Amino acid sequence: MNQLIDWVSQPWPWYVAGPMIGLTVPSLLILGNKSFGISSSLRHVCAMCIPAKIPFFQYNWRKEMWNLVFVLGVLVGGFVATSLLSNPDEIVIATKTQADLAALGITDFSGLMPSDIFSWENLFTAKGFVFFVLGGFLVGFGTRYAGGCTSGHAIMGISSLQWPSLVATIFFMLGGFLMTQVFLAPLMKLVGF
Amino acid sequence: MKEVESNISEAVCDAPNSQESGERGMALVKYLILGILFGIVFVKAEIISWFRIQEMFRLDSFHMYGVIGSAIVTGIISIQLIKRMKIKSVAGEEIIIPTKKFTKGNVIGGFIFGLGWAITGACPGPLFAQIGSGFTVVIVTLLSAIAGTWVYGKFSDKLPS
To answer: B107 lies in which domain range?
Structure first.
């Protein structure tokens, strides 16, 4: 039993995690005829709480309650994994990435997220504005305009062989490469790193 | 398996519910459990880590490519099996996968999301798992993502589609 817990507590390799994530696709289809996708939960929250008579938010969100229950589960899962199954060691990231990020001003490489950025003290600062407010806005606006995110397009869409999802995924990656390789360094300098 | 054109006024984006029979209360528990398992995998494979996303976009590690790639391969195989073996849903309904129509949003919106993904280190799923993992300030990111979704909804008819 202890051995099992030790094994589960280690970071899981991609060839374990990837197929488990992929199995979400048939699980949702067979359990309830549902297509996998997570960003739609953000739309349902809008439709439920702040529809403001906007046609885009006028639909029967009650029928999509399952999606909100699912993301609530993801949140609980995050809690369970971190509190019960967490890895006692520091995260091991590629030395080149670590060196590049250190050069940009990141100093804490101990957790899953750098505390230099993701802390409440940064909320009302330029760092908080860029990393939480701007970043979150781009994720919410972009995924909805694209009609899906990594789960809806990259995983569900490509798995069902739909080419618009492949196009969307290619542009997800292009945006990410451009931000990381070109804009991130000046942006971090600008906000005081 | 039926492939249907999604009706724009009815379409609920990337994760439509094609089940005809309604589900309430306890019937939703299975999605909670599935979500919990999914969240655990997210954390255990460190997919929610801002560092892992940086590694991916700096091409310094295979990890994220391996995760997404093997998830897609598993998805393709599963859907082909469902199609060929004509597997039905638990409720006995024919399994429906709505067709995604190409829009300019796939390109423009996709690109905008990519920019945000590299900043936050999270796509929408990991946002929830990050909050659950104790990075509570990500609640602000999530609220901002909801605001972004709302602003898209408000101006969707004025954007190229």
So the answer is: 100-161
Q: Are residues B91 and B15 in the same domain?
A: yes
What string of DSSP letters covers A115-149? TTTSSGGGTTSHHHIIIIIIHHHHHHHHHHHHT--
Helix (H, G, I), strand (E, B) or coil at B60: coil
Of A122, A140, A168, the CB nearest to B106: A168
The structural domain count of chain B equals 2
Query: What is this model's ipTM?
Result: 0.96
pLDDT digits (tens, 9 = 90+) for A165-187: 999 999 999 999 999 999 999 99
| B116 shares its domain with B95 | no
Domain ranges within chain A, ordered by starting residue: 1-86, 91-192
* CB nearest B44 (choices: A55, A81, A149): A81
Among all residues of chain B, which has the CA nearest to that of A168? B106
Among A81, A101, A139, the residue with its CB nearest the CB of B120 is A139
Whole-structure pTM value: 0.94
Domain termination residue (choose one: B47, B66, B99): B99
B12 close to A (CB below 8 A) = yes
Which of B99, B116, B142 terminates a domain? The answer is B99
Interface test with B, best of A143, A150, A173, A191 (most B CBs within 10 A): A143
CA distances from residue A29 to A89, A188, B79, B82, B130 in whole angstroms, order as listed: 37, 42, 9, 9, 26
A162-181 CB burial, b ≥16 within 10 A, e <16: bebbebbbbbbbebbbbbbe
Q: Are residues B17 and B78 in the same domain?
A: yes
- 8 Å CB contact of A159 and B78: yes
CB contact under 8 A, B42 and A72: no
